[in-house]
Structures are given as structure tokens and as C-alpha cells.
Amino acid sequence: MDCPFKTDEEPAYYGSYLAVDKLLSLQAPLSLIEGKLHAHDEMLFIIVHQTYELWFKQILHELKACCDVLQKPSADDDGPDMNVVVHRLKRIVEIWKLLNQQVDVLETMTPLDFLDFRSSLEGASGFQSTQFRQIEATLGLRMENRFRPDYYKHTEIGGFNPADYQTIVEAEKGTSLLRLVEQWLRRMPFFGDAFWQNWNGEETDATNTATPKFWKGYRKLYEASLSERDERADLLSKFDETFFKSGAGDFSAQALRAALFIMLYRDEPLFRLPFALLNSLIEIDEQLANFRYRHLQMVRRMIGTRIGTGGSSGEQYLQGAVNKNYIYKELAGIITFLIERRNLPKLPERLHQALRFSSTERD
Ligand code: HEM
Fold first, then answer.
1. To test the ligand 1 pocket, which listed residue (102, 116, 154, 299) has its Cβ within 8 A of the most ligand atoms?
2. Over the stretch 153-195, which tens digit does the pLDDT of each residue have?
3. Nearest atom of ligand 1 to the alpha carbon of 56
4. Atom 35 (ligand 1) nearest CA
5. Using CA atoms, how far apart are residues 105 and 59, in angstroms rounded to an integer?
6. Does this model's pTM top 0.90?
7. Measuring CA to CA, which residue among 327, 359, 284 is closest to residue 100?
């Protein structure tokens, strides 16, 4: 059968398929005057940035595909849907690792090499990477949770042009991956009464049917797992806040209970993919934090404490972003509430079976 994407009878050709000529004509160093590149390292600077932008494009492509799947009203948790999401998220993790390594290449440029052309960049900065902001927004970093949002989101000199500004506003309006994951966690069907009838764990609290009996027992096990040196009262009050009251950050208590349950029973066949999904999100956040940190170190090495070409305080701003701009911090935070696997309560047989086979019992 013919390939459905072939549009003409010409044989394909590497250079034209990849538009190599066009790609190689897109580096325009400002220090290239009358055919001579006066600042040798400007070429490296441009190519490294362009490579980042290409990978950002790929990351956005993957993120959009993940959001499309999770937006489906009936995403299949143990089938191809979830498999695709996890696969794409893992790819994003690998891309970030590569992006973090690229810093080493740029660091072969010395501060003096950079000074050869830095002044010509005044007004331009990685700050203005619209795709980077789209990635942050699609993952779920909200304006009010950022370090100094006023610093970066403006249209003065050093800020965005009106079209890019609009693109970012639109990205922030969309339903983020975080929100979709939160909704997906809330839909977890395994806390329905049907699964827990006749379970010889804790008695059901008749006054609060919304609190499944499992959690009352789990809270006791968690308390017993704490050591003398743990801040017991503090941790238990955080436990109650996180899993029974307001939740944490943008995650509801119900969603975080589901996430903790998945982490605890991740060896159950049906939880392997959900666990891999949660783990990938935490890893993406970690890689993004690594990027912020590596970038900060590079900036210190390149310009010391001078202000950035984008007009921010430079090092100070970037340090603030490293400390604050986490997206899945609350998800990673529930790791504080894990207990030893050997002390986990045995699940009711009916639930155990449901987690083993794709079964109608899940409803
Ligand atoms: C010589 C190399 C570099 C220097 C000296 C540098 C410097 C800076 C500075 C000072 C800032 C703060 C904003 C400002 O006032 O300009 C910034 C922000 C930023 N830069 Fe770079 N940068 C370099 C390379 C890169 C590369 C290769 C990328 C890759 C795309 C990049 C991406 C970013 C991003 C995304 C921000 C915003 C960070 C945030 O808001 O959290 N930078 N950069």
C-alpha cells in the first residue's frame, strides 16, 4: 500500500524534506559585518538558543497531545490512552535532560567572548521566549504562583511584543495539564462503598461518609510510622489539611487521596501506568528546576551580578524563580505521607481483583 502522506511522485530528498537550506540560513549574527563575524562566539550563542526553541516546540507538541487525551471524557486508564500519555511525558523528561546538558556547550564561551557582542543584545532576553512561557502555562504554572510575575509579563522594553504577549495570555487561559490531571485523579473510582463492604479494616465513620474508612486506618498507621524526631503534631495537621480538608495548592483533598493511594499500591497492575504518570510529572518539574538552576549558574559565570539584557535584576530574579516556580510541588509533597510497604493494609478482595483485571466491577 502507498504511503498516505506522499504528495507527489518525486523521490523524497533529505535536504528538501528537512528544509536544511532554509534552516541554515536562519542564523543572523549582529556582529557579521561585510561577511566577517567579528564576535566568533555569537554563532554558538544563536545556535544554542535556536536548538532550545526547536525542542520547546517538540515539548509543546507532546504536551498538547497529552492534554487532548486527558480531556476526553472517558480516557482509558489502563489501556492505550494512558499508555500514550505516559510515553509522551517520559519523552519530555528526556528532552529536558538534553536541554540541561546543552548548558555545558554554551559555557565553553567565556565572559569576555560574550562581552564581544552582549551590548548589541540590549532589550532581548531568554525572558521573552514565548514558547518557554507556553510550556510553563500548559504544565500549570499560574501567574499568582510565580516569583515576581510583573517582572516578566509586560510589553515595555525587555518585555514581550504585543503578539507574543497575547499568545501567552491565551496559553494561560487554556486548561492546563495540572488541572486535567487533578480532574482525572478525582474521577478515581476505587473508593466507592461497593469495594469496601465487609472489609475488616477500620469501621466506617457514619457521620462522615465522604471519608472512606481506609483513610482513618491509614492515618493511624502513618502516625505510628513517625519517629521521635519527626514534628508529629505538625505532620498530622498537614496530613488532615491535605487529605481531608482543603488539599494543597491546586489539588483538592480528593485528588491527593487518589494520588497517594496510587503511590502506595503502585505494584497493582492497574496502577502501574497512573503511577508512571504521576512520577513523570514530578520528574518534569525536577528537570525544569534543574534547568533554572543550571541557567542561573551559567548567568553568574557569564555576567556576575549585572542586570540582564531583559532589564531584570538578573541573578536575583533568576534565584527567586529557582526557589518558587515549581508546578507539581504539592504532588511531590505527598511523598511525606508514605509509609513502609510492609505495613500497608491489605486491600479488600473485590478491589484487589478490580485492580488486577480490566473489569466492569470498577463501576
Ligand atoms: C550567555 C548565556 C545567557 C545569559 C547570560 C542569560 C541571561 C539571562 C538573564 C540575566 C535572565 C533574566 C532576565 C533578564 O533580565 O534578561 C535570563 C532569563 C531567561 N533566560 Fe537566559 N541567559 C543565557 C542563555 C540562555 C539560553 C541558552 C536560554 C535557552 C532558551 C535561556 C533562557 C532563558 C529563560 C527561559 C529565561 C527566563 C527565566 C524565568 O523567567 O524563569 N537563556 N537569562
1. 299
2. 889 988 999 999 999 999 999 999 999 999 999 988 888 777 8
3. 30
4. 126
5. 21
6. yes
7. 284
